[in-house]
């Protein structure tokens, strides 16, 4: 599943919806299956799939290779109980990304008093509690660190066990807070006032990652040569930051109202 191919990473239509490619992800899956058949890869999986999308692959006629995993955002503020149990019931493993609350601009999970109390009780760090939380749910976990001491700390999670009470306390922190927002989702943000779409360099498409709460619509200039630079700057003015991969995220304080 991808966006319309072209010079623009994330193309939007006039209504602010991202323009998908006309490729069906089931066809993409077949191409990925070919890679397994050719011995070029051992296993294939998906990321950020909801249960309906996953079900479409699993029930696809003539499925040759089942998805091994679904990599999704998961941490105590987004516990993903239903999706995890769906995946596990279908023998699709789950990988939790942003398990520590994400990199800079993420959420400061490690300051949460519940997590800190559990950490003190086990003489472990909050990061180790967050990692162990996923392991005990039978979820694979990919914490990221560039710091050698923390990398070591993050693998020292097999010498203790969270109690059932600890697990329940962590699960109760869920607030369905999604750090990773995709452009289709960003179009839910309310517009302060409808703005006429602007035609950019002969194209009908707009690059509109976000409309602000009381702010102005950000139409990002397109410069095929220097696309990433200006877009990132504009995005940051518009309250967005680019995360790892190709996703846009809303900065704290600019979330959609409940
Ligand atoms: N599939 C997708 O759509 C998707 C989307 C987003 C992310 N991901 C993947 O998920 C992985 C993790 O994501 P992420 O880096 O955004 O979030 P994360 O692992 O939740 O958080 C990383 C942040 O935590 C810090 N950290 C790591 N270990 C720590 C420790 N022991 N104590 C205190 N702080 C610690 C890191 O700082 P230092 O580096 O300075 O230690 C970094 O700022 C990455 O591999 C990423 O590629 C996948």
Keywords summarizing the entry:
binds NADP nicotinamide-adenine-dinucleotide phosphate; four-stranded parallel beta sheet; 31% helix; alpha/beta; 8% strand; 258 residues; TIM Barrel
Q: Can you put this structure into words, describing what you see?
A:
It is a single chain. The two termini are 29 Å apart. The chain has 258 residues and is of the alpha/beta class. The chain folds into two domains: 1-18 and 182-258, no CATH class; 68-171, Alpha-Beta Barrel (TIM Barrel). The radius of gyration is 20 Å and the shape is globular. The chain has helices at residues 25-37, 51-58, 81-89, 113-122, 126-135, 148-155, 164-171, 183-186, 228-237, and strands at residues 46-47, 69-73, 93-97, 140-141, 240-242, 248-250. Helix 4 crosses helix 5 (126-135). It has a four-stranded parallel beta sheet with strand order 1-2-3-4. Strands 5-6 form a two-stranded antiparallel sheet. The protein binds NADP nicotinamide-adenine-dinucleotide phosphate (NAP). Residues 22-171 form the NADP-dependent oxidoreductase domain. Pfam families: Aldo_ket_red. Residues 209-258 are annotated as: Disordered. Belongs to the aldo/keto reductase family. GO terms for molecular function: oxidoreductase activity.
């Amino acid at each position: 599943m991808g966006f319309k191919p072209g010079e623009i990473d994330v193309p939007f239509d006039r209504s602010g919806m991202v323009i998908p490619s006309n490729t069906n992800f089931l066809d993409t899956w077949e191409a990925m299956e070919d890679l397994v058949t050719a011995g070029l890869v051992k296993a294939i999986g998906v990321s950020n799939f909801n249960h309906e999308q996953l079900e479409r692959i699993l029930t696809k006629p003539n499925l040759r290779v089942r998805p091994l995993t679904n990599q999704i955002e998961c941490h105590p503020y987004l516990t993903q109980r239903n999706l995890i149990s769906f995946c596990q019931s279908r023998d699709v493993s789950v990988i939790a990304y942003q398990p520590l609350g994400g990199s800079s601009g993420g959420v400061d999970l490690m300051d949460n008093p519940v997590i800190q109390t559990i950490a003190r009780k086990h003489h472990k760090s909050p990061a180790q509690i967050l990692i162990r939380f996923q392991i005990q749910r039978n979820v694979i976990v990919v914490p990221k660190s560039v710091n050698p001491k923390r990398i070591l700390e993050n693998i020292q999670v097999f010498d203790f066990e969270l109690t059932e009470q600890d697990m329940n306390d962590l699960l109760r922190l869920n607030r369905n807070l999604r750090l990773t927002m995709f452009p289709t989702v960003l179009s839910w943000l309310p517009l302060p006032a409808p703005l006429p779409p602007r035609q950019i360099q002969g194209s009908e498409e707009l690059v509109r990652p976000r409309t602000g709460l009381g702010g102005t619509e950000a139409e990002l200039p397109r410069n095929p040569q220097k696309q990433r630079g200006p877009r990132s700057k504009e995005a940051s003015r518009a309250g967005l930051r680019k995360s790892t991969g190709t996703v846009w995220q809303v900065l704290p304080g600019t979330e959609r109202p409940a």
